[in-house]
Amino acid sequence: MKIFFAVTLLAFAEAGLAKSKLKCVTIGTNVYEEEILIKDLPSPFHMTIDYDTNTLFVSYSYSLFIPFKILYLSLKDHDYALVDGIKIGFVTAVDDNSHTVYLGASDGLFTFNYNTKNATRIASSPDLSIWQMFYKDGLYLTTYPNQKVYLYKNGEFTEVPEFKEIKVKILAVKNNGDYVYFNSSGLFTYDKTLKKSVFLGDYVVNQFTANIGGDLYFSTPRGIFYIDDKKGVIKSLAIFEKATLGVSIDGTGAIIYGTDNSVRRITPSKSDCTVNLTEHNI
């Protein structure tokens, strides 16, 4: 995956909150303003929202000796802190039905406890170094460096049969159960009825995410895109000058995304400004 991680000794304490309006963009017919939620945070490359508590979980590059950490940020009052109990946390995913927050690491699978603010290991395997995760009917995860896809359900890991012969870096699941995945050859969808993959484009995907209704979005180093299954197109929602890393959609539909050194949110605005939207046929 072509995500460029900044190796830095920047202490977490140096990161801070800031709310400064930068520019306006349009998403569909709506106008949004961009604000900085966390500044001076190196390479926030993956993020997930727990809609029940309105909490954002962010994985980012931490230091030379501890390359990745996970923090949680309350979108209600903007309080945030590191998640304790996990050494090298790569990614997160949330089961909205059971309100379980999963954290993936190089040494296993963890859950987050809101009372203690700690991570608790629930599963581990020497063959499972978790790289990316996505929750739908169960917890889907990809591994590094072998790029396998597993489903964690009822306390067990099962390799997803559709991908036993296909390498996958990142995977998401549509509302109809079909898969969308990214590997070194580009972006694909897997039709479970036809049992075949369909090429969607030569995108370099950093992260897949879903809004509260299950609609899929993804980030690339250049911007944020939306997979419109009804129209059969991929819509370019926003292209940014700064590199784009992780992405998430909050409960209002606002986009939260990571740059090389900050976490930002695009929120509704009454400002009179526009950008052009482009559509790419699939």
CATH topology: Neuraminidase
The number of helical runs is: 0
> How many domains comprise the coordinates?
1
What's the overall geometry? Answer: globular
- Largest sheet, described in full? 5 strands, antiparallel
Are there runs of 5+ residues with pLDDT below 50, and where? Answer: 1-14, 17-22, 274-282
Q: Strand percentage, roughly?
A: over 45%
* CATH class label: Mainly Beta
Helix content: under 10%
Query: CATH H-level name... which superfamily?
Result: TolB, C-terminal domain
Give the topology string: H per helix, E per strand. EEEEEEEEEEEEEEEEEEEEEEEEEE
Mean pLDDT: 85
Cα(first) to Cα(last) distance is: 22 Å
Strand order of the largest sheet: 1-2-25-24-23
Structural class: mainly beta
The CATH architecture category equals: 6 Propeller
Task: Report Rg.
Answer: 18 Å
Using DSSP, what is the number of strands? Answer: 26
